[in-house]
Amino acid sequence: MNLLAPQHETWLHRVNPAYKLFIFVLLLLITLLNRQFDFALNQLIAYTLLLFLFSGHSRKKVLLITLPFLFLFISSASTMILFGKGEHIWWSWGLIRISEESFYRGLLLGCKTLTFGMLGLAFASTTKPIQLFYALMQQFRLPAKYAYSFIASIRMLPAVWDDIRTRSDALTVRGVRYAKGIKGMYERLRNYALPLLAQSIRRAQRVAVAMEAKRFQMGRSRTYYYATRYTRSDIGFTLAMLGLVAAAYYMAIRLPLVGWGLG
Q1: What angle do CA 150, 156, 158 make, to 5 degrees?
Q2: pLDDT at position 47
Q3: Count of CA atoms in the C-beta half-sphere (13 A) of 79
Q4: Which residues contact 226 (CB under 8 A, 6 or more apart)?
Q5: To the nearest whole number, what is the mean pLDDT of the chain?
Q6: Is 178 found in the same domain as 71?
Q7: pTM of the full predicted structure?
Q8: Where are the beta strands (DSSP E) in 50-116?
Q9: Same structural domain, 118 and 150
Q10: By three-state DSSP, how is residue 57 classified?
């Protein structure tokens, strides 16, 4: 559960979580709609540097977390390269047709995939889920019933994991053995599903009783334990993101590395 706990906080951690989410969604839309390879590559470089320099984690840990995204890059790019359409055929064999257009589209798609991953990791590694939902309630007026439902579910994840471990230890002590194949999967599902469901229902009922005892009501104005607001960090964050996008676009136009795009 502490995988994304940073070693130290950076200026990205001080940005309003809801506002950070809004800006990152805009950046993802820019990445999605872009059809210029140089711009996509420059965005990827910029967001990768943002992740490695300001996530608050060690370089080795960030590198370890980003390794699976290389597989996504290879899989998405290779699929488009091998099976994409194009007029200028480089090589073909059976269903595989590698063309100039499919090659460029594959690299563009791979860069977009990596960019999505870098932005997502940058957001996840610098944002606490609880503070995000509090910010969504206060700044973006997310209804409390939805926000607190998510918060309660996040808080219960460690408890659910403990229940699974306790159930597994109990079955092991009792000497329960499972068959192989599909029958064994069914036996595991039968031994785990109903007890865990019953335990979750009891836990949810206790939470509901506690909220009712504290006179929690959805429709009334309320105060918050974690108060979130806009600060100077949000202004700096906005300027930094605008600067990154502008620099990436300027470099793609003035100093292109490849110089091609898709019309």
Answers
A1: 130
A2: 95
A3: 8
A4: 130, 131, 134
A5: 83
A6: no
A7: 0.78
A8: 89-93, 96-99
A9: no
A10: coil
**Based on the structure, what is the number of domains in the chain?**
2
Best mean pLDDT range from 8-22, 156-170, 182-196, 208-222:
8-22
Residue 144 within a domain: yes
- CA nearest 2: which of 158, 168, 149? 158
Q: How long, in residues, is the chain?
A: 263
Identify the domain containing residue 157 by its residue range: 136-214
As a whole number of angstroms, the distance between CA 106 and CA 155 comes to 41
Would 259 be classed as within a structural domain? no
**How far is the C-alpha of 30 from the C-alpha of 250, rounded, in Å?**
15
Looking at the domain assignment, is residue 261 inside a domain?
no
Nearest-10 Cα torsion for 178, 181, 183, 189: 70
**Mean pLDDT score, 35-51:** 92
Look up residue 219 and give its two tokens: 């429709």
pLDDT given for residue 260 in this prediction: 61
